[in-house]
């Protein structure tokens, strides 16, 4: 069912073009192939390896009917994220990402509950 993504496909899509060298994250050093015109060039071989790993994981989760959260907030990918999630019956976030959603869920849930309580109180208020 799955197929491996090729270097040519990634190259044609411009995946190899990274951030400007002055805006990089040092944690990404092992994934950078080189520099061209003051921009980092991403190592496509490592990209392919990790994409294939991710693809296998997603296939495993899908075969077990596990839910997947698709996230993509850049304009260029918003629609693709939404379509892929809906097509596969999963969840998506394609607008603003709320920091802490995954790493600080306890606090986020408290704030959501507070919001629900405020909304319920607003329903009870009678305006004259």
TrEMBL record:
Keywords: Ribonucleoprotein, Ribosomal protein
GO molecular function: structural constituent of ribosome
GO terms of biological process kind: translation
Pfam family, one: Ribosomal_S2
Keyword Ribonucleoprotein attached: yes
InterPro entries per record: Ribosomal_uS2, Ribosomal_uS2_bac/mit/plastid, Ribosomal_uS2_flav_dom_sf
GO CC entries: cytosolic small ribosomal subunit
HAMAP family attached to this UniProt entry: Ribosomal_uS2_B (MF_00291_B)
Family designation: Belongs to the universal ribosomal protein uS2 family.
Full protein name: Small ribosomal subunit protein uS2
Species assigned in the record: Mycoplasma mycoides subsp. mycoides SC (strain CCUG 32753 / NCTC 10114 / PG1)
Gene: rpsB
């Amino acid at each position: 069912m799955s197929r491996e993504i090729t270097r040519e496909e990634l190259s044609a899509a411009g995946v190899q073009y990274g951030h400007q060298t002055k805006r990089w994250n040092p944690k990404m050093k092992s994934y950078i192939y080189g520099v061209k015109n003051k921009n980092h060039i991403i190592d496509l071989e490592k990209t392919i390896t990790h994409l294939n790993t991710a693809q296998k994981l997603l296939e495993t989760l899908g075969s077990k009917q596990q839910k997947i959260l698709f996230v993509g907030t850049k304009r260029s990918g918003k629609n693709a994220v939404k379509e892929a999630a809906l097509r596969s019956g999963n969840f998506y976030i394609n607008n603003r990402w709320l920091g802490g959603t995954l790493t600080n869920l306890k606090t986020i849930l408290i704030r959501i509950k507070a919001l629900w309580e405020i909304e319920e109180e607003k329903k009870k208020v009678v305006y004259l």
